[in-house]
Amino acid sequence: MYFAPTPGASGVAEAAFTFLFSGYVNHSDIVSLTFTWRLFTIYIGVIIGMIIFYGKLFRNHDKIEVNKLGG
Fold it and tell me: Distance from first CA to last CA of the chain, Å, rounded?
């Protein structure tokens, strides 16, 4: 679903998820389920990746500063 040939995926993954699960979930719950699915599959991974990236970036920045000072 993430490799849909549309600009920015344009909601294709969400539409496919909604279509696939609409037979199993109440129609009143499908929108919140779709947003929750997107949160857990994409955004939590992005947040964890940002934390790790910035942690390594600043850790390496400290090492570079120490090396410049001759330590």
Answer: 50
Residue 18: name the closest of 9, 26, 10 by CA: 26
Residue ranges of domains in the chain: 7-68
Angle between helix 30-38 and 12-21 (nearest 10): 130
Q: State how far the Cα of 11 lies from the Cα of 8, in Å rounded to an integer.
A: 8
Structure tokens at 59: 């850790």
Q: Take residue 70 and report the two structure tokens written for it.
A: 């001759």
Place of tokens 């500063």: 65
Q: What is the residue-level pLDDT of the chain in tens, covering all 71 positions?
A: 455 555 656 677 788 888 999 899 998 999 899 888 888 887 888 899 999 988 888 876 656 555 565 55
